[in-house]
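pasting input
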Amino acid sequence: MAENSALEPKQRILKAAISLFVQKGFAAVGVREITKEANVNIAMISYYFEGKVGILKAILEEFFERYSQMLRDAVTEEETTEEGIRRLIGHMVDFVRENTELAIVAYNELPLDLPELAELKVEKITQMIGIMSGLIKRFGLDPEDIYHLGMIGPSLISMVFMNFRIRSILKNVFKVKFDDAYYKEFKETIATLFLSGIQGIAAKKQMQKRGKT
Amino acid sequence: MAENSALEPKQRILKAAISLFVQKGFAAVGVREITKEANVNIAMISYYFEGKVGILKAILEEFFERYSQMLRDAVTEEETTEEGIRRLIGHMVDFVRENTELAIVAYNELPLDLPELAELKVEKITQMIGIMSGLIKRFGLDPEDIYHLGMIGPSLISMVFMNFRIRSILKNVFKVKFDDAYYKEFKETIATLFLSGIQGIAAKKQMQKRGKT
Amino acid sequence: MAENSALEPKQRILKAAISLFVQKGFAAVGVREITKEANVNIAMISYYFEGKVGILKAILEEFFERYSQMLRDAVTEEETTEEGIRRLIGHMVDFVRENTELAIVAYNELPLDLPELAELKVEKITQMIGIMSGLIKRFGLDPEDIYHLGMIGPSLISMVFMNFRIRSILKNVFKVKFDDAYYKEFKETIATLFLSGIQGIAAKKQMQKRGKT
Amino acid sequence: MAENSALEPKQRILKAAISLFVQKGFAAVGVREITKEANVNIAMISYYFEGKVGILKAILEEFFERYSQMLRDAVTEEETTEEGIRRLIGHMVDFVRENTELAIVAYNELPLDLPELAELKVEKITQMIGIMSGLIKRFGLDPEDIYHLGMIGPSLISMVFMNFRIRSILKNVFKVKFDDAYYKEFKETIATLFLSGIQGIAAKKQMQKRGKT
DNA sequence: CATGAATGAGAATTCATTCAT
DNA sequence: AATGAATGAATTCTCATTCAT
């Protein structure tokens, strides 16, 4: 049960906390639970993180750090829009696959109201939106069509995260094995869905414009 | 702050609880907070719901009750697959719009581990998957392609829910006004995205088959 | 489980309360538990007994009423001391056998400090000691030997009550069947033990007196 | 009122709890009352005893530990049955005198139904009966006469405990001073009562046997 | 660095009782 | 006579945090 192994105490705390936050949510997890799981003394949480919210803060910072790095990696010098989006989705899926618990905690806790983290959230989300907007615009979408941007952007994110969030249900219901083959197919499917989708939207808008003239 | 109005105490508790759970999450909300907001005595929670989790239980039951009713209403005698899916998405959006907080609470709390609700969750989710699987098959998708079903189905749900979940961000960043016009466009956009998306997937599969033969 | 039968509500409450008090002790039993067991509405306890302690009060009064009646019945016109004591013990055993739960509740709750009942207890115990002192004196004991009176009197009572108090243990350990034959033997044994005992004490005192002179 | 003296917190809690349990009974005493009396923080009860019943558990364990030790000490290499029994009674009286409150709590709470302690009680009582049976048999009683064993054994215990249980009444009514002289006399009286008593019982049985033949 | 005892505020729940019907 | 919703105080227990060692 305990994680008294190789990792440093601080890392053990983070690891244990993330795991428990995924299971029960931040507020439902007690510090004693975390320290027990991490096999550290209870005072270590104050020492390393200045309290329980400090852990969540560290987790969110870690998430945004890695996530934005992933985004930056995803969009260097792409050739076509399609390839760019396919690569982006591939990176996103890989990222969430490699940082599943971290990503789920961030996804779950972000919309919740925790006064101590309000500032951090605004800052990071603003940053994130900046990056993503930049990306999406480079994919040839009409930058003025902010309306659809706000609909489509979040859809893409949610499609990817949702899959990991309900993993245990998918495993039971669809008897899925989450191996490399599955994720290869998953990437292609989401990418195709998304690409065909936005082409369909573009086509429809075109038609509407013509209809108006 | 207080809701000492027309509604019955039990309903006032539910209303206050849902609202607070959306803001902070179930575990972070105290019963005293709920009763204060609902303007009822603290003992009423035991009296009506047999404890705090009883409230969440009632909320989830209410959600599933209404959600499954919505699904059943959505798919009577549709003509074409496209029309059927457009109507389904329309109903889903209307539903989440009319039951935003209820839906968000369910969406947020469902993946969390709360032993007392484990049974309820399994039962309701099983039910829900049954209904949705039936629907999706009626839309002409290959019923054997359970692989893509598990990828695409959740995507649709998450696309709709995500929009409501991050409403406050969207409002601030994209200066959106969530009025009838917005939701008309939202329905059409999501429907088009989804329909074009699955057509794209179908087309790709067709190509792969041909490639193999 | 419920006692919704023949008896009047007030009697049903008393019966249920006595039974529960024996099992768990007065303080550990809640009024809702009693009303549930008695199959009456919760407000009936205020109505009939003016609260929870009122029930215990009624129980103790009932006990003392019956107990003193038993004592008065036990000592009319006895011939010899031995017969008198044997008859007294017989009556005591019969009494506790017929009113086991009532007697156990009284025995258990009497030494406990319940401010509302302090007065009642003093009154009844004083009464009881008066009656018993009268009895014991009539049995030829030296009335001045108050020292031994305080040692021997309570011993007799405790011998009888103890047997009923640990009935379930006796049943399991000694495989006793608590039938008429058992109680016949029990009466004789306790009476003999007690009579021989006090004779032994008297003899010893005699010897000590002689030794001193 | 407070006990902020030499003893360790854990011991102060135990001491305060025992004292209060004697006065009011376990169920009627609140943890706040105990911690106030013991002059410790309320959370210390969870910390040291894992809850209120944990205190009672510790008390009962302490009682049985000491009581069985006393029994074991009482019966080493005695010469005659009479001396053995006199020494046993002497030890019992000394024990209850030195551990009055502990003994009274155990005596009062043992017959009450507290699910969390059921197991402990069965275990300890079984142990105790084992020890006592061994003793009583060594005193020359017919080991097959299990019938009288179950009547006489408890009688002895109750005679000793009763005296301490109703101390305050005895003090008021009989103006007893509970000093060494009193207990010397008490030991001798109970021992004589008991010894003469069982001799009387034995004699009577003898007579019955002869009568039958 | 690390410990674990100790703190006080706050958690959820249950209590006996009351009151309008 | 009887109901059951409603109350507010009190219950036990757990919380995150601190501090002396």
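fyi Chain D has two domains: 1-50, 59-212.
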